[in-house]
Records
---
Amino acid sequence: MDTGWRQKVEEIVDRALAEDCAWGDVTTQALIPPDAAGKATIMAKSPGVLAGLDVARTVFERADHSLTFRALLSDGARLESGVGIAVVEGRVAGILRAERVALNFLQRLSGIATETGRYVEAVSGTGARIVDTRKTTPGLRFLEKYAIRAGGGHNHRVHLGDGILVKDNHLAALRARGVGLKEAVALARKNAPHTLKIEVEVTSVEEAVEAVEAGADIVMLDNMTVEDMRRAVGRVKGRVMLEASGGVALGNVRAIAETGVDLISVGALTHSVKALDISLEFENSIP
């Protein structure tokens, strides 16, 4: 874990632990002797793709620095029900204090990686890449976009400063001032750093052609039918990178990929994904 990654993870973990242990773990304090030691295994209870091991490790370390955490797998590993993910040893009170927060991260991030893996597999062989969106959990985007990569996907913009994306509301605001799509692209090119690419969201084949002729680097085909996507690809393929967005689901992602688009962005990977079932189980005896 490099320094930058560690610092960001620790900041997120510390906030989560503070939220969960605001007034201490009163149940554990009432029941468990401070010197009680034990060993617990984190286990998958359903199949999927693992993500978030370093985050879980950090939770246990920050909750109780004396605990030892031993990973049995690596992020990106395929999980089956009943497979051990990691072993934690040390003070029982520390393990219990960290348990829920660690599992919350593991379940959420592994759920994202698992769903991403399904989409990546669905478009295998087409040349299209699955990418995420900014429809992430507030405060967790850094981790959720990591989980996308663990599942085999790719990241779109991490934040608003990551690239220029001229969306429908930008265009609507500009049109109210008499500025059209071509002029919008020219404004972006003039006022933004030359190192940033310009992407334009369009809703028709005609707008896609107009965006390309205006000098866009990437064109987002937003909520277009598969047939219209195919027509847009036929008109501008090779001149710009093409991204499909809106209404993407496992049932239609293969058909979208087969139109010839380069990228397919899927908001569902983060905004409505189901957490993977993962548990922590102590050994039968606790000295």
---
Amino acid sequence: MSYRLAIFDFDGTLADSFPFFISVFNQIADRHGFRHVGPDEAQALRHHDTRAIMRHVGMPAWKLPLASRSFIGLMRENAARIPLFEGIGDALHALDREGVRLAIVSSNSEQNVRTVLGPVLSSLFGHYECGMSVFGKASRLRKVVKRAAVPEEHALYVGDQAMDADAARKAGIAFGAVSWGYAPIEALRRARPDREFGSPPELLHIAGLIPSRTPPV
């Protein structure tokens, strides 16, 4: 099945921001009073969902918006250090040429998203919904689908974390899991994605340009 609307998460899906996130995590922890995480520990925590990670570092839910704002601010100051994953630009251009409508729903700021994408790729996206809580994406997904006037069954949210899958399900749309993001694909498979993408060129599955990969049962 091909999709008419592809909605993308940003961090870990389009942008390779995990190394930067790890480099500033302990700085944010000091600022907001939760526990440091070492490099090896950070890799292990990728197998856990966001709530479990928050419990592990001792971050209460009320601190999450504060920590998120700190990360967004630091990223704004260092946007030139954040690359896109190799092949993302080519895949987005190909989807656009095939008439797939593109949108972004991200907890990061629209300014950061546009800066990292650059003006050419930014112009390919018809809808931006940014800056919400990581747990508040479902309502933004519904908003994008409504604005795009695309039936829910023809919309796909592409992300790299289990909470992205949860948001897609709450919004009534399909979820596509990427294997190159924050969470390893083994962890994402537990969320039962509708599609699985092993590399950025496989995003062309969205338009039906190459055979789709069915996630293992």
---
Amino acid sequence: MSRYLTLDDVDVTGLRVLVRADLNVPMERGAVSDDFRLRASLPTLEDLVRKGAVVTVCSHLGRPEGEVSSLSLRPIARLMDQLSEFDVTFESPGDITVLENTRFNLGEVSNDPQTAERFADGYELFVQDAFGTVHRAHASTVGVAERLRSVAGPLLASELSALGRFLGEPERPYTVVLGGAKVSDKLAVIENLLPKVDRLLIGGGMCFTFLVAKGFEVGRSLVQDDMVGIVRD
């Protein structure tokens, strides 16, 4: 895999740093029901603070179209403040500042240039640390990276290292377990992996589209009707 810049390649002292993290966690009745991704993201943010950076973190949550109060990152910031040794605030200055849900901006998903400019404004370094979002050309991923000096965060770097091993010469037998809600989000990955693996196991919500393509009844389960023909092929 080609070389890319990481946080080890830059001196962040005094820099205003925007971190794209994956804070897209399960929510129940307005509270975080699984904090795994928050705990995984905090070490990168805390390390930046220790090194003297001014840290802001952004993320999406769910799939809102415009503002949806139940998908605000406010409760996520509150829980991160409890988990962190540093002061984590929501949209106000702190050791670590959490911005509101990026998808509340209607130009996020379309990578609107003005939206990307707003995200990048005032920052000197962009740290991409959300592996689960790098395949999406959104304003807070591609748009910001086109406007700021950008590096891979530790979480992203570790995922890329693991992915490089799996796409190179993996040990055999080689089985991949792939999950996710939508087949359309994973189709390119599936097509890329199929020639390389001995077995590909499809789970998550997208398994139902495969089951329908094979002729099974799935009741009211999530199905992407427009993908059934492609999946059948």
